[in-house]
Amino acid sequence: MHPLTSYLRRLIRHKRSNLCVSADITNADEMLALARAVGPSIVVFKTHADILSGWDPDPVHGTGAKLAAIARKYLFLVFEDRKFADIGFTVQLQYAGGVHRIVDWAHIVNAHVISGPDVVRALQEAADSWGGEEINEDVGDAQESGSDTWKLPSKRGLLLLAQMTSAGNFLNEEYTSNCVAIARQYREFVMGFIALKPLNSQPEDDFIVMTPGCSLPPEESLDDSEFVPGSEDALGQQYVTPKELILRGCDIVIVGRGICNATDPSAKAEQYRGVAWQAYEERPKLESGDDI
Ligand code: 5BU
After folding, report:
1. Is 141 a catalytic residue?
2. pTM value?
3. What's residue 224's pLDDT?
4. Pocket test for ligand 1, best of 22, 232, 261 (most atoms within 8 A of CB)
5. Where does substrate bind (predicted)?
6. DSSP for 209-273?
């Protein structure tokens, strides 16, 4: 099993949380404030670095380093939802270079395999060339819970986009199964998938599944920041309840606007955590190792 997968599975049980908050907000300092606010309730924090104004690129004191420090303090993994999709040469530059230097601070990234399997090999090479040490000094969120128990694996992980939540997307069954086949070739780097359901089908498969398009039914919600499950937003995003997703066997539910736009994001994250965790405890234990 990928070391970050076993780390994440331990975190899920420790924090009683299957929640990933997606920071779909457009200012870097507000993104960091959101990470602190929801930190206790989540196991993964998902970012879109390219939507943020005010990104500080300093590798030691900047936004990425601060986010990594907050992640160490509250015990969660950072997932940059970069959706790499180019040729191998280019994705290596996009992963390790530019303003964001994603590999320095994001434990997990994701990729489309539309360009073929070499995108995975290229990202793996870039991850392997990365030093393996997070260079974030004490920026006020220093590690408190940093016993050896929660020492972060020094490896980076990749999720493949096997299915999407947007209406009319082209990721059909054949594409999804090709994606799984590619993941099997690169087990030491690929942790799992963005998908709508678990995709493990062979005994040695231990891929995790993270699923966006997650929304509470309005009558259960603490406020009116959700979209209605079973319906779409104005741009084709489709929603399912956290309970349904967890009962299907998804490992992590990803929530963006339902939490970011809430009156009280930390209370809302805690509400989502509770609902998803209750479903997780109710569901029969799967063979994928989620109860090990
Ligand atoms: P929402 O506000 O909860 O709908 O936000 C969902 C987030 O998950 C958003 O950042 C999307 O970019 C991301 N997402 C998605 O919604 N659907 C997908 O298939 C993939 C990512 Br891949």
Report:
1. no
2. 0.94
3. 83
4. 22
5. 24, 46, 165, 237, 256-257
6. EEE--B---GGG-SSS-PPPTTSB-TTSBB-B-HHHHHHHT-SEEEESHHHHTSSSHHHHHHHHH
Is 86 annotated as catalytic? Answer: yes
Distance, CA of 73 to CA of 174 (rounded, Å): 41
Sign of torsion, CA 38 288 290 125? negative
Residue 57 DSSP label: -
CATH of region 3-282: 3.20.20.70
Q: How far is the CA of 178 from the centre of ligand 1 (A)?
A: 22
Residue-wise pLDDT tens digits, 100-142:
999 999 999 999 999 999 999 999 999 999 976 655 444 455 4
Q: Which of 83, 155, 205, 233 is catalytic?
A: 83
Cβ distance 213 to 167 under 8 Å?
A: no
Q: Which H helix or E strand runs over 77?
A: strand 77-84
> Reduced to 3 states, what is the DSSP secondary structure of residue 15?
helix
Q: Which residue has the tokens 């989502």?
A: 272
Give me the residue spans of the domains in the chain: 3-282
User: pLDDT below 50 — which residues of the chain?
Assistant: 136-139, 142, 288, 291-292
Q: Is 230 annotated as a binding residue?
A: no
Sequential DSSP letters for 153-192:
PS--EEEEE----BTT-S--HHHHHHHHHHHHHTTTTEEE
| pLDDT tens digit sequence for 232-262 | 999 999 999 999 999 999 999 999 999 999 9
